[in-house]
Amino acid sequence: MSSALWVATAGMPEPALLDAIPPACRRPLDAPASVQIGPDEALVESPIWPAAGATHFVPAFAVHTTVPFSARLELCVRLDGAWTPWAGGVSLGPASSFDPLPPVEGLGIDVDVFRTRSAVEAVRLRVRLRAPSPAALPTAPWMLTLSSSDGSTSTRTAEASARGMRIDVPARSQMEGDAAIASRICSPTCVAMLLDFWRRPVRLAELAAEIFHPGTDLYGVWPAAILAAGRRGLAGYLLRFPDWESTQWCLARGLPIVASVRYGAGELTGAAAPETPGHLLVLTGWDGEDVLVNDPAAPTPASVGRRYRRDELERVWLERTGVGYVIFAV
To answer: Is 60 exceeded by the pLDDT of residue 156?
Structure first.
């Protein structure tokens, strides 16, 4: 599978960003983004990224500010020599009055994922930011990222390095949260574990309320997790991981990964939840052919740390969504 991560940034050190992106997916930061400031909103727009052949796109945005703001990620692509109109994902942050964008022929949106019917020639991404003082947002350190891939299925990859390792990520169980939502807050719980790891502790109830998206009634909108990390001074991106090697590269550098999995009964031996149409867990290392994880669906923090067979995890993660959150300090 072909997978790339495109990045536009300001105020964040480029070497630190590149050191946090797997080499197989890393693309150079060689062109600046444009920033426009209006009375009610700011618009940060990427350069043209030559993502030729891609059909699957997952954007994200992080900015180091505690100022309340709303954001919408928007994408346009070049097909057959012509640019499509801009298409918008879901609104993130406090309720706002973004004008709706009409549907775009050939460019579909599923909450936080953009897909095209045919391979693109190039792509542009922008984020629309709305706040009482929008000019303050682009002056803070920020990064705008786009994971692009050809949408093909990952296949079984090389054996794990003989040298296993484990990242000491503090354990949290989503089942200790509010009983009314405990079964639905795997994403906020995983992000809370990473915030603990990076010494930005947060109350789970507070983080879940911040990440919750009322329009879709979801706690698992992927870019909302990256926004939450940015508000606490961390950088982050979403990536459709192409293979185990890229996963292991991150883990070996002390970068835990929040992996989006789905599986049926019996597909993940020893899983905290017997089956799920969508779940998130934290990859913390590996040991031979086992992957070490913090699974927030476990009933207690003491049972969160687990090991899953790598062949099974690859099947329920890399061969399905393949999407992971990488959150890190810069």
So the answer is: no
